[in-house]
Write a structure and sequence with these properties.
The longest helix is centred in the C-terminal third of the chain and has 15 residues, at 113-127. The chain is built from 5 helices and 7 strands, in the order βααββαβαβαββ. The strands form 2 sheets. A 4-stranded antiparallel sheet has the order 1-2-3-4, sandwiched between helices. A 3-stranded antiparallel sheet has the order 5-7-6, with helices on both faces. Strand 6 and strand 7 (166-173) form a beta hairpin. Helix content is 29%, strand content 28%. The chain has one domain: Aminopeptidase (3-Layer(aba) Sandwich). The chain has helices at 13-25, 47-53, 91-97, 113-127, 142-150; strands spanning 3-6, 66-73, 78-86, 100-104, 132-138, 154-160, 166-173. With 174 residues, the chain is an alpha+beta fold.
Length: 174
């Protein structure tokens, strides 16, 4: 596996469109399937606007600054997923979101990309000065749980959400 994290640029326009087209065509009942939310927040078809809004640079009451990376399979020259690293936690992220949101495109799941993508994201988090990373996932999301624990995640607790689902909170020391 030859995976690297890249920042979005005009160089990767085709890779982005291929991945996003697949993701939107994928039919699922799981509302949380489209993660990280940062890559779904704006219309990627308006590429210039998408490129300028993919990262939050100035904090607001609701959002903290974040860095978005795309996981490039170098050998095949395709995006296999994306990861968003929040530079710090506000109260909502501390309770429900964590430092890192990630997702693997549907056709590339269960191939080990998630574990490697998170390993690389943790290196980026360390560069940002984050020494302890919080990651969360739904209790029934076995793939996310394995990805987190494969990278050293230690379960702190479980939180019942308003929809009745159980959210697991894991910490990873860097």
């Amino acid at each position: 596996m030859n995976l690297k994290l890249v920042k979005l640029s005009n160089t990767y326009r085709k890779q982005l469109f291929d991945m996003m087209d697949e993701w939107y065509a994928y039919q699922t009942d799981d509302e949380d399937d489209r993660t990280p939310g940062a890559i779904f927040a704006h219309d990627y078809h308006d590429f210039d606007n998408y490129l300028s809004t993919i990262e939050i640079k100035v904090p607001t009451e609701k959002y903290v600054p974040g860095s978005t990376f795309f996981a490039l399979d170098v050998d095949r020259n395709i995006f296999v997923g994306a990861v968003n690293i929040r530079h710090y936690l506000n109260e909502h992220l501390l309770n429900y979101g964590g430092h890192i949101g990630d997702g693997i495109r549907p056709s590339e799941r269960r191939k080990g990309y998630g574990t490697e993508m998170i390993r690389l994201a943790l290196l980026e988090a360390k560069k940002l000065g984050i020494d302890k990373v919080l990651m969360t996932c739904d209790k029934n999301n076995v793939g996310s749980r394995k990805t987190i624990t494969n990278n050293g995640g230690v379960l702190e607790n479980e939180v019942k959400q308003s929809d009745g689902e159980i959210l697991q909170r894991y910490w990873i020391k860097l």
